[in-house]
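Crash report, auto-generated. Payload:
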Amino acid sequence: MADLSIAIDDPAARTARRRYAINRTIIYGLLLLFSAVYLLPLAVVVMNSFRPLPEIAQHGLINFPRTIQFSAWIDAWSTYCINGTCEGMKRNFFNSLYMTIPATIISTFLGALNGYILSKWRFPGSEFLFTCMLLGVFIPGQIALLPWAYLLGQLGLQNSVQGLVLVHVIQGLSFTTLFCRNFYVSIPDDLIKAARIDGAGFWRIFRKIVLPISPPILIVTVIWQFTGIWNEFLFGVVLTSGREQPITAALVALAASETNVRNYDVMSAGVLIGALPPLLIY
Amino acid sequence: MEQVGVQPSGSLREWLGRNLPILILIPSLIGSLTYVFVFTGWTMYISLSDSSLLPSYGWVGFENYASLWSSRRWNIAYSNLFFYSTFYVLGAMGIGLILAILIDQRVRAESGWRTIFLYPLAVSFVVTGTVWSWLYSPAAGIEFLVKSLGFENFEFALTASRDYAIYAIMITGIWQSSGFAMALFLAGLRSVDQDLVRAAQIDGASTFRTYRKVLLPSIRPIFLAVAVIMLQFAIKTFDLVVALTGGGPGIATTFPAIYVYDLMFQRGQIAQGAGAAIMMLVALAVVLVPYAFYMAWRRRREAGHG
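Recovered output after restart:
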């Protein structure tokens, strides 16, 4: 910018500057346009969760609030009826929380250990085993539906949050192991070797060398697992029902139980309750 | 601290010390490998059995696959998948690339723009689908808005139409995932050697030409990776359709994943449902196996040259 203002009378510089200004306008204009499209759905739910239903019916969903009410949030949280039970979404919200937090912690912890072993304590066949574990990343959940339903039944975990925790830990191991292993591969082997010569064992190296440099990858893994598990729908809807369902399944049930009148206000609040935790983690 | 190798060999302690890593790995291995091999094998077996409502192990060969492929609904499901994935992948990559290039122009508040385009990724398909189904609703959504602005003849009822409902899913899918493509493309653009870019600029190449001739060709591997990942998403598409159209109107937007769910848990035909699940696995393999081989081949070639 500085050298442009010195050459202010040079016609070539002036056209260059004008072209630059036009370019910038186009770039920011396009970015604003795209942003509007990306933000519209979010704005719509946020606003409609505070708008009274008659107002929505009269002025449509895509409109600014004229009056503000908070009752939709209270209804969605604790009194709204889904499939005949009228206790809102709070139970499903806590189901999701009790499912997501343990499953995230356990799968991340195991992934870190597995990654450490598969990168720094290799043994004959460990690369092959890693490749086999990796296949789990690609297998569609549909393949595992029947086996999980059967296995959880055998374990007495059918229709339970604990059952879903087990499912998500196992399903997540492939991802967490892959993430951590690829990160730990970049730690120089010499560092580990030196520590072993000094007499440090498996756990000591893990605690003193590996864990202290792990925060970046652990944060990524936790975010990935948390959002993935919280947002998961297929296993939630197949392996649990009614009061035990996580919030994603409850949201679909809520939308389906609406017949003629759509309570957009309560549903908006419900949708936001279901979307907030991963957005906050993000 | 135990001193490995100093203690007499054969002691339990030393054996434990030596095999500790494997022992710790074993539970995870059992879990993962059960999931990968036993579950897949079991589902495959079910798909070749005479199971109906409950698993049963009478062998019927490929009968279930035959009836699967002669089912009209399955045919709709997989042709939907082909149609959807083509435009979903191209659309998400196209918009992702445009966004990445725009953000790459040294814009102010870069992380702010990035967050706006990335936040849909943190939201579940269920939430996205539900909200977009409202936007598509003629009585309250986009059509209502445009009509109330004075365009009385405007019609935008995608989800109510058998022919157009799939476009509603496509638009929503692209909305949700183009930020992902953007992030990968942007990372790629940033990793290109800046000397190359500067050289092109000194030669007088315009921004457009620099992208077309220098930057985009050097991130070609990223295009392929993004396409493969997006295809994988497309094949697994389930929640979005359930929340957006429920597979309807009628069966117009049935997808393979929905077909599997329906047959297994609504209609009690688990053998055919398992067959459909196996076909999904085959579809993924068709995408991923060649890619894995290509990557291995490239790595070997690079190692050879390096």
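Post-recovery validation: Residues 90-262 of chain A form a domain with the MetI-like fold fold (CATH 1.10.3720.10).
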